[in-house]
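Subject: sequence -> structure tokens, single chain

Hey, anyone have a minute? Need the predicted structure for the following. Not urgent.
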Amino acid sequence: MNPTPATGAPWDQDRADARRAAAGDAEAFERLYRRHLGRVNALACRMSGPQEAEDLIQEIFVRAWQKLHLFRGESAFGTWLHRLAVNLIVERFRSATARRAGLHDGGEGVMDVLQARPSRPHVTLDLEAAIQHVPPGAREIFVLHDVEGYRHTEIADLLGVAVGTSKAQLHRARMILRELLT
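Reply:
Had a minute. Here:
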């Protein structure tokens, strides 16, 4: 990381690179991309699974490039990018759910998940793998709450659900994970 001459703080470098990138500087955007790829990748993998993560990452950074002019620098660039990424993932999740709604009831039941579990009791799934076995709605809320640190009120606003729904889905996800990991 090459610090900016002024203070050298990464957030200052991000702010400067964001301004340059918004003005069309592709090299500045590439520096932002390299600094934030790991966090965006981890978020995309946790919320969508590794199969979809690569497409999501590309879509997130394309959207960031398109919306850089909206970054005001009032918060850290990483915070802005994280929010943009979560919003895009939620948007994609909603459209996929809407497409599936016409095909079936929209999700796996707990029994489907548990029956798909390997029959060898000595095999313990790690948390990342276990999260992928949680139905999408519950997984999304679990990741937002327990991994990313969002409060239920924030999740409710973000996803357009009731606070009680957020709490119930979090409980469901935790119960499934507890069963899968024990």
